[in-house]
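As noted in the main text, all predictions were made from sequence alone. Below is one such record, for SMP-30/gluconolactonase/LRE family protein.
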Amino acid sequence: MMKMHERIVAPLWLEAGNMLGESPRWDGAHHRWIWVDIAAGKVFVREAPAGEIYEWTPGRHVSLALPEDRDHLIIAHHGGISRLSLLHGTTTLLTDMGLRWNDLRCNDGAADAQGRLWIGTTTFDHRAGGGDLYLIGKGRGAEVRYPAVACSNGITWSPGGKTMYYTDSLARTIVAFDIEENGTIANERIVITIPPASGLPDGMACDAEGMLWIALWGGFGVGRYDPATGEQINFIEIPVPNVTACCFGGPRLGTLLITTAAKETDLAQYPLSGSLFAVQPGVSGVPSGYIDL
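Prediction:
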């Protein structure tokens, strides 16, 4: 069990060499880990606890892969949302979200308890106001839920699902919303502000105690924050600067898996950049949702 304000170093889990490793997910129904390399356009699946690794290359800056069933993942990419067949490696476009994709791509997202997809967009230059946060449900229509962001990123929910947390990385803030079962969000408030010295907030996960674990791009780690106070209460050190995302999984959701990027990094100084790291922080996570589009 981590103690308050404890700092620990996460062990190496996989020397992956990902240019922009992102969006790790635990598929508990099939006991496997999923993540992507956005820059390489690749999707990876690794059987738990540390088994065979499989990869697919749907391309188009795939930024997110979420489990639908044993043989299919739902992926977000430059161009919209598609279904990836793990048996054949083929993709089927589900929706282009009604957008023009000239300088736009999908970024981070998550499945909620109702099986809907929350997905953010960003321009390739992360231009202020260039992206939005969308909700996609059964009808596959993309509805804007939070507009005009620069780099739409981490999304997670509190235990019980009554609060949604969201970050626009370049704003350096984590915003909380009250959320209704129909996907309506209200009562927006800033709960955490990341100072420049700590890096940029990227992907995040919530634990069973309601604390947020936030990957810090340029910050060499993952911070654990209390959304009630905004205080950082623990820190997982990673031996590379650009830490991109994290998720809980494994037995009893007791493992925190962390992705990193080799992009914008001095590889001679930080040769493990782009690797994945895993730690048992002594607290379990909140189960992730499955996509049902």
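The chain has no helices and 25 strands. The chain has a mean pLDDT of 95. These features were considered when defining construct boundaries for the mutagenesis experiments described in Section 2.9.
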